[in-house]
Amino acid sequence: MSPWHPNSSLVCNQPIVHFPAQSGIAMVTTLILLLVITAMGLIAYIASVQSDLVSAVSDKSLSIEAGEACVDDAIDWRSSSEGRSWLNIAILNKPENLLKLPGGALLGKTV
Question: What is the model's pTM?
Answer without folding.
Answer: 0.37
